[in-house]
């Protein structure tokens, strides 16, 4: 599998494994399924793995670390996130998490973007992962905490990078405006952009992607299926977009793109994975995968060769902005 390199010399495979499902996203995933998915990813050539404390209240990290423990440490890149600490919940026994993960709420998430909070978050992740360093640390969804993010959180991550605890730093968000500010104002290495540079949405072309390319900041494109709207050859009528029912006009646009896909003998999800990688600032596409079967299917989609004429047809019909 091809890799692209960050300015910090970290090589990210063009396809990365998102490990939210290893934290029981929406429903339970067994330990065996989680381990088999990581093994299948390795067999497929994937060497970039992304997790977060948020995913299953630490469960994703506790599963991913051991699943990679017998792999050569210098042969893979692992990213996690900071900004929310996991603290004892005090909830009654049997209370389940209300953050979208099927796990007991024995701990809860607590925002803390202070220097101390960021350092505690990263060291907590190291303990759960069983590692002595993290390759990439992202500030996780600081949408409502912009002042603290600029004043303390991003500088704290940069300090950890200077100490060698992490190798690259940035932010992971579902918007492009605040990440553009991080790129403009701070010495960040990489931005994980979820859902904002896809076949259906290219607003990041206005500012973030040109700025990232100019300053040598890598972009990791996540949520390229837009919550599932682009995950099938034809979007279902009840498809989701940004975790909510998809508007009719977006379903219609996805179907119009699917029409072009069928003309060229490819599928909508194959095109969805390939599209972000056409931009020179994009270093990887991260896709959430729960099972070995999903991993193998995703790898096959990534490997599908997309003819240049297909992209030209989308552009000619005004369906996708030229990158």
UniProtKB/TrEMBL annotation:
Any one annotated GO CC term: cytosol
CDD domains in the cross-refs: AKR_FDH
Signal peptide start and end residues: none
UniProt-listed InterPro entries: AKR (IPR020471), FDH-like (IPR044477), NAD(P)_OxRdtase_dom_sf (IPR036812), NADP_OxRdtase_dom (IPR023210)
Domain of life: Bacteria
GO molecular function: oxidoreductase activity
Database matches in Gene3D superfamilies: NADP-dependent oxidoreductase domain
Boundaries of every NADP-dependent oxidoreductase domain copy: 14-315
Protein name: Aldo/keto reductase
Provenance organism: Orlajensenia leifsoniae
